[in-house]
Design a protein that fits this description.
Elements (H helix, E strand, L loop, with lengths): L18 H20 L3 E2 L5 E3 H5 L11 E2 L6 E3 L4 H10 L7 E10 L11 E10 L4 H17 L5 E7 H4 L2 H5 L6 H8 L2 H14 L15 H11 L5 H11 L7 H17 L6 E3 L13 E7 L9 E5 L14 E7 H10 L13 E3 L7 H13 L4 E3 L7 H11 L3 E4 L2 H6 L1 E6 L5 E5 L3 H8 L2
Parallel strand pairs: 1-5, 7-8, 12-13, 12-14
Antiparallel strand pairs: 2-4, 3-4, 5-6, 6-11, 7-9, 9-10, 10-11, 14-15, 15-16
Helix pairs in contact: 1-4, 4-11, 10-11
Length: 450
């Protein structure tokens, strides 16, 4: 009895990228990495599998759904981001020179419910600076985000900036238990998705049992204070001024206020277009390990599609691996989210995918060695060349293959051409044909392919 036929398919939340889209993805990655390296960043690679305790920090309140690996004899899991493995690397290799500036491209996996625009497996392209506690490092991260967007040819974006140090003062300003801060910030971070009304309702939702703060159950007075905080409007300078007035009497807010003022001062000095960044007090970032400036990048034409690059300062993350104090800041481009958003806005249509430039037809099997030699000489000259390897014997069929693949130039070489030491060039767009000496072929085709 034969083996049962397997249905071809993928689990929900995962996808294939076929060649054209995969080539555009690679182009995006190359542009981003080029910017990273201009700022002195170097690549790092870590395995997709880590010890489960590395990822969870042995935190009983850890609530990220992760992929665990069964049957290995060890408690292993798949990474859900690239930041926690980076912290592990810094603890494991303390001899690394600081400041340590690294970028990393990698697939991460999250056991979330798949939905439109959210995948369970996706690629991130992170960049981080470890060692400096200066706000200048955070400013450099924001500067890099701006330069990447410029390199991609995107002008209609906004980098929204805040600091967790201001957000950490909210319990003292709004009058609620500091133990409720994390769920409050997670709710605030959903403002763009659920709106102000949804935030108010979630903040007031009663806990399921005493000591359970996922539903913070804030008083009306505390909720009103948070709404007042979130409602501060104006440009960055105006928001800082209004916030200064609002929290002037809150000692716990002063460090955050000074941090926002510093961000404003130094971001102005970078020359970044002020239309592409602003102080936004609603930016909270849901992960617990952020300790200072936080930032998110939205496309202004499609803000509902969410952030394509986000991050912040995470000074305490490395300390989970021992008595290690290592300030750190960074951000991450979600490559799959970036592809989806740019595709929806038509940006990907502007990226031309360059496949083979030249097809060497194979119309006489006795000349196969010649076809290989011709293609090899063209490749050595830096030209993208393929020999037709399919089952279609006719010239017409092979020209059809070139047309479907968008190959602009086809070389025809039969017995007549072999005896004369020449090859026939067909330009697919115009249909024109001309005879070229094999001696000059590489030089001539280099001109055509420019």
């Amino acid at each position: 009895m034969g083996a049962k036929t397997i249905k071809a398919g993928l689990p929900s939340g995962f996808r294939d990228l076929l060649p054209e889209m995969a080539a555009k993805k690679r182009w995006l990655i190359e542009q981003i990495i080029y910017v990273y390296e201009r700022f002195g960043f170097l690549p790092l690679e870590t395995p997709i599998v880590e010890f489960e305790e590395t990822l969870t920090g042995n935190n009983p309140d850890f609530n990220m759904n992760i992929f665990q690996i069964a049957g290995s004899g060890e408690k292993l899991a798949m990474r859900f981001d690239l930041t926690v493995p980076l912290a592990r690397v810094m603890a494991q290799y303390p001899e690394l020179i600081k400041p340590f500036k690294r970028y990393q491209l990698g697939t991460v996996l999250r056991g979330e419910k798949a939905q439109r625009g959210r995948y369970r497996g996706f690629d991130q392209l992170d960049f981080d600076i470890l060692g400096p506690d200066s706000i200048l490092a955070d400013v450099e991260i924001i500067n890099i985000i701006y330069d990447v967007m410029m390199a991609l040819g995107i002008n209609d974006f906004l980098i929204r900036v805040n600091t967790r140090k201001i957000l950490n003062a909210l319990p003292f300003y709004a009058g609620f238990n500091p133990d409720k801060l994390v769920p409050v910030l997670r709710i605030m971070d959903k403002l763009d998705k659920i709106g102000l009304g949804g935030v108010i309702q979630a903040l007031k939702a009663k806990p399921e049992f005493e000591g359970h703060f996922e539903n913070p159950g804030l008083s009306q007075e505390s909720v009103d204070k948070i709404v007042e905080f979130l409602s501060l409007q104006g440009d960055s300078e105006e928001i800082i001024s209004e916030l200064d007035t609002l929290m002037r009497e809150i000692p716990e807010a002063q460090e955050g206020l000074e941090e926002l003022k510093g961000l404003y001062k130094f971001l102005k000095a970078t020359g970044i277009n002020p239309n592409n960044w602003k102080i936004d007090l609603s930016v909270a970032r849901g992960l617990d390990y952020y300790t200072g400036p936080v930032f998110e990048t939205m496309l202004t034409k499609k803000p509902e599609l969410g952030s394509i690059c986000s991050g912040g300062r995470f000074d305490g993350l490395v300390s989970r691996f021992g008595n290690i104090e290592l300030p750190a800041t960074g951000a991450s481009f979600g490559i799959d989210r970036l592809i989806d958003v740019l595709g929806a806005l038509g940006y990907l249509d502007k990226i031309s995918v360059i496949g083979s430039q030249i097809l060497v037809t194979s119309i006489d099997k006795n000349l196969s060695a010649d076809y290989i030699q011709i293609a090899s000489s063209l490749r050595e000259g830096g030209l993208r060349t393929e020999v037709y390897l399919g089952k279609e014997d006719s010239l017409r069929g092979q020209l059809g293959y070139a047309n479907k693949k968008g190959i602009p130039f086809v070389l025809i070489y039969g017995s007549d051409e072999a005896s004369s030491g020449r090859v026939k060039l067909k330009e697919m767009q115009t249909g024109e044909q001309k005879s070229i000496s094999l001696t000059n072929l590489v030089a001539v085709m280099t001109i055509y392919c420019q």
